């Protein structure tokens, strides 16, 4: 039994969003993910998927991509990304598959670890940050706090947070998210969202006692990374 992570699958199995427009390494990337996943993930393993699951705009369209994930080995814990417009009511999502859990103001467990999280947003101080961004930024921190409060209330001390957006962009930056991590004793943070030139800003390593792990699938060469 092991815990893995990967994010930004950007599935479009209906063929409407070819990913190779972002570079040849994205050509048939779903086949690469599937091949690598099957090689390393066993049915008893758990995989964290931190957002940008599907390009679909509606749930009915996204079901093809969710079904593809469902058929892969292992249990999956999924959080929302900025492109997941198909994401519908949480109760409907939780009733889809026994092997797929969806985080929204709640948490799940892996052995003695609590898996918490939220989508996140661009952080204050980013270029072009607006009052509208500030509203979403604060709202996402509230959702993160709700997730963490439940886990801590239930007695969990080993906590992993999964976010889509980077919770900070350099090792010295303090954000609402990093303050919340410290308040609740978070030990590991997995995140994605960054691609291409943006990957130069990816934080990987331990900062202020918290391990940050970048999981965008192109950063990982389309291989799930072992977390525990």
From TrEMBL:
Q: Which Pfam families match?
A: Metallophos
| Calcineurin-like phosphoesterase domain ranges (all copies) | 3-196
Give start-end of the signal peptide: none
Against Gene3D superfamilies, the record matches this protein to: 3.60.21.10
MF terms per GO, please?
A: hydrolase activity
Please give the name of this protein: Calcineurin-like phosphoesterase domain-containing protein
Native organism: Clostridium cadaveris
Q: What is the lineage of its organism?
A: Bacteria, Bacillati, Bacillota, Clostridia, Eubacteriales
């Amino acid at each position: 039994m092991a815990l893995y992570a990967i994010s930004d699958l950007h599935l479009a199995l209906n063929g409407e969003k070819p990913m190779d427009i972002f570079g040849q390494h994205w050509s048939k990337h779903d086949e690469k993910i599937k091949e690598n996943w099957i090689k390393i993930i066993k049915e008893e393993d758990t995989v964290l998927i931190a957002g940008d699951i599907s390009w679909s705009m509606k749930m009915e369209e996204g079901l093809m991509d969710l079904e593809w994930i469902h058929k892969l080995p292992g249990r999956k814990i999924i959080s929302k990304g900025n492109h997941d417009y198909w994401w519908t009511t949480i109760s409907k999502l939780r009733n889809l598959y026994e092997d797929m859990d969806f985080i929204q103001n709640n948490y799940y467990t892996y052995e003695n670890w609590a898996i918490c999280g939220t989508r996140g947003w661009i952080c204050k101080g980013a270029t072009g940050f607006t009052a509208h961004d500030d509203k979403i930024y604060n709202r996402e921190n509230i959702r993160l706090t709700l997730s963490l409060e439940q886990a801590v209330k239930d007695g969990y001390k080993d906590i992993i947070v999964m976010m889509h957006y980077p919770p900070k962009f350099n090792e010295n930056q303090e954000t609402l998210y990093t303050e919340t991590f410290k308040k609740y004793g978070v030990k590991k943070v997995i995140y994605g969202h960054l691609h291409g030139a943006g990957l130069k800003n990816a934080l990987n390593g331990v900062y202020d006692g918290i391990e940050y792990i970048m999981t965008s699938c192109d950063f990982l060469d389309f291989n799930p990374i072992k977390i525990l």
